[in-house]
Amino acid sequence: MPSEASAHTPALLVIDMQNTLVAMAYRAAGTVAAIARLQERARAAGAPVVLVQQGDEELEPGTEGWRIVPELAPAPGETVVPKAAPDSFLDTELDAVLRARGVTEVVVTGFATEVCVESTARQALSRGYDVVLVADGHTTSVRPGPGPYAAPEASVAHHNEIYRNLRYPGRRVRVLPAAEVDFGGGAPAAAG
């Protein structure tokens, strides 16, 4: 990664926002809307938008459930990175795609907070990227009732708080609401 302080190139990373997963997501409509606004702003600023798409026995490539939700569909020329593990970098072209575009910071959004979003954000830090976790741009599954997993609202809040206090030497880690994310095109857009 470039070591110059002036070299700042963000990219929006949209993880696993696929029909089957969004159908089971906590606050799905609000999360999709927040990410859609981020996509618009990233595109307007000329920042890369990279979508990551899980493919496995439960999300079989080519099926309707595997497809990215229509509201977040890639624009012509945008990269969709297929993956088969929670870590979006593992055995994928994600790192090469980001490096080829000179990306120094990933703006992380998607599903599921404690699995693919968490795994990818930590790997991004380990690979030298700065990270913005979008506080209202990641979500997890709705839980059927009391059990060993944290409630979805608690899981999202928990991860936001961890990232607010996470320190990686030489990296910038931030948690911002979607309305405050700046892709370098000036002031952040107002919430809407």
UniProtKB/TrEMBL annotation:
Membrane-traversing stretches: none
Keyword tags: Hydrolase
Keyword Hydrolase set for record: yes
InterPro entries: Isochorismatase-like_dom, Isochorismatase-like_hydrls, Isochorismatase-like_sf
GO MF annotation terms: hydrolase activity
PANTHER family: PEROXYUREIDOACRYLATE/UREIDOACRYLATE AMIDOHYDROLASE-RELATED (PTHR43540)
Protein name in the entry: Cysteine hydrolase
